[in-house]
Every structure is written in structure tokens, then in C-alpha cells.
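Feature request disguised as a bug report, sorry. It would help if multi-protein outputs had a clear separator. Right now it looks like this:
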Amino acid sequence: MRFGVLGPLHAQITGLEVLLEGPRQAKVLAALLVDANKLVTTERLVAVLWDEKAPATAVRQVQDAVSGLRRNLAACGAPSSLISTRRGGYQINLAPDQLDRLEFDRERHLAEGHEAPLEKAAGLRRALACWRGAALADISSQVLELDAARLNEKRAATYKQCGTRSRARIRCRLMRCETAAAFPR
């Protein structure tokens, strides 16, 4: 199971790309992944889905989107416990190696614990290797754009922590990743 928000939204389970039925399911999944292992309130999901005034049926439509998302995840082999219903909202439960954002945070934290500059730079490069392009590049939501900007700022700060030679190598790698994302085979 592998999910990604550090680039275009990505969801793969048992080697299968998860089919998301429309932008609502994609936005709900993105919001859950941005706050993985934490409660995402129904109110936040309503704000993510409707940038302007939400319809009177917004809560029901969020419930329908979550239900459809669960069904599509299960069809690829995800456990039923992946998205849990909690009082006031929902939570996606993932290990750090199942979500690029969690892996990035873990690698960055480990790198910051190194005293030696070369070890620290190597750890920061491992963190930056989690990225596939601009965060949530394919998701259109004003609320999620703020989260994407915060993630992209963390990427830039991590990049700046690397030494000059490391930055040149990382810049080349990121350009290759962004080019590959823009022109898939």
C-alpha cells in the first residue's frame, strides 16, 4: 500500500492504482492523507470540497464520497480499517512507509539528528527523494492549496539545508521527476 501527496495525488494498493470516481473522492483522499493518522473533521472536508458556499446536503455528500472511496480502496485490497469513522469526522491510518509525506517527515527528522554535515546532507537527500513534483499538483481546492503551499515550503527549507553540491544533484533529480510527471510514458 502506497499513497502520495508530494506531487500529484497517488494511491496504489497491492500494485493496483486506486480508481477515484471524480474530484470529490480525490479531494477527500487528499485531505485525509495531508492529515494522516489524525482526525479530519466533517467541517474541514466540506470546506475542502466546496471553496464557496456549501450546499444544504454537503454533509451527506461527504459521507457518500467517503463511502465510495472506501469501496474503491477495498476493491484494490485495502483493509476495512484503513479509513475509520470517528466522532466528528474520519481518519486514515497509515505507517510512515505507506505515505510519502510521513516518510519525508521521518527522514528529515532523522537527518536533523546527525551532527556530521555529510550524514545530515545524505539524510536530507533521502527526505527529498520522497518528492515527485509540487505537492498536490493535480488537486483543485483552496483549502488544500494552503496545505500544499506549507508542504512545498518544507521541501524548499529542506533543500536549503543541503550543501551546494548536494543541492545541484537534487535540483537535477527534481527536474527529472517533474519532467517525467509532466510527460508520462
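(second protein starts here, but nothing in the output says so)
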Amino acid sequence: MAKSKFEKLRGAIEDGNSFLSSIVVGGEVGQYQKVDHDEFESILETAELIAQDESLEPVRYESEIVLIAEAKKHLQNSVVVMKEPVEIISKVIFLKGTASQCIGSHTLHHKSGVINFHDGKAELPIELADELIKAGYVDAE
């Protein structure tokens, strides 16, 4: 025999509580943020209150089942993961001069290359940007 919406809600609450008791709250890799844990716990508590009334329309139980599933998925996706370090490969530089002198497009010929600036600003590889700073053409951000 198929389970009623009420029975499915009771099962979703049990499953949610089981999952909630198995996770660790914290900021370390593999742990979950407290705010996400508390939000899911609150949703389960509300569902418990609804599940105490067997006289509600089945659609009310169904909406709680959906809410629990979405909240659980959100909590599962909020696990703290190891972040890859970001390598900075460019630097933003600014032409020296007054603001009015830097408006528009400008070109700087350096060694055998041409560097284009828009409103006195350009983003370049770190090594080239450092060369231009050292030569006194530009300032760093």
C-alpha cells in the first residue's frame, strides 16, 4: 500500500533529524556553517508541529516535504570545502598625471611594445607592470 502524505512527512522529518545529528558545525573543511544548520533545524521543528495534526489537507504535508528536501539540499551544499589558492597574475596600473590628463585613450611605447591605457588605467602582467612602476611611468592601484 502506498504511503500517505502524512507518513511521508514523518519519514522526511526522521531523515532530516538523522542527517542533522550526523553533521559537525564549524568552519573547518567538511563541517557546516551554524546558520545553515540552525535554519534546517528550524524547518524540521516547524514540520514537526504540522505533523502533529493528522487532520490537515495532504497538500499541506506535501509542501512541508518539499521544503524539507530543499532545505536539506541547501545544507548539504553549504559544507565547507578546501578553496584553491588564487594566483594573481596581473596588476592594475595608472598613468602618472592629473585626472584631466589621463582622460581618454593613451598609448605608452615601452621597449618593443605598445601599452594602451583607457582613462589612465591598464591591467598588465605583474612583471611588466613592475617595470613601468620602476621606470616611473605609472603608479600601482
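Even a blank line would do. Unrelated, but nice: The chain has a mean pLDDT of 89.
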